[in-house]
């Protein structure tokens, strides 16, 4: 059985728009620790998580997104999710987080809103 993976590719922005973190893989129990280690040090004033490549999101992944959202909010930094898959959107809806964490249909819309 293949190990579960999540790749994070940072795309820095220079013109005042938020940086983008493109996720590819599964944001699940096996990948959240590395995900948080990678994302917590990001110091940009705005951060958009491009979730279009996330093939599966579980409760641990949702917890990691909430931790990152709270961490950034406490630092005065913005955070948004973009391009959630239907499975990811359903998990966020069931968790009741669509009212807490800003979610946008596309990365472009998320960058324009921040």
Structure description:
The protein is an alpha/beta fold and about 110 residues long. It has one domain: STAS domain (Transcription Regulator spoIIAA, 2-Layer Sandwich). Helices cover about 35% and strands about 30% of the residues. Strands 1-2-3-4-5 form a five-stranded mixed sheet. The longest helix is centred in the middle third of the chain and has 16 residues, at about 60-75. The chain is globular.
**Averaging pLDDT over every residue, what do you get?**
93
Main sheet summary: 5 strands, mixed
Q: Termini, distance in Å? A: 41 Å
Low-confidence stretches: none
Radius of gyration: 13 Å
Strand ordering within the main sheet: 1-2-3-4-5
CATH topology descriptor: Transcription Regulator spoIIAA
Superfamily at the CATH H level? STAS domain
CATH hierarchy, class: Alpha Beta
Helix content: 25-40%
Helical run tally: 4
């Amino acid at each position: 059985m293949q190990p579960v993976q999540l790749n994070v590719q940072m795309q820095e922005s220079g013109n005042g728009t938020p940086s983008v973190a493109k996720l590819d893989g599964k944001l699940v129990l096996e990948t959240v620790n590395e995900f948080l280690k990678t994302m917590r040090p990001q110091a940009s004033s705005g951060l958009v998580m491009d979730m279009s490549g996330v093939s599966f999101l579980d409760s641990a992944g949702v917890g990691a997104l909430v931790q990152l959202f709270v961490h950034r909010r406490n630092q005065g930094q913005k955070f948004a999710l973009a391009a959630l898959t239907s499975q990811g959107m359903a998990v966020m809806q069931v968790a009741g987080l669509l009212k807490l964490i800003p979610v946008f249909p596309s990365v472009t819309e998320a960058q324009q809103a921040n």
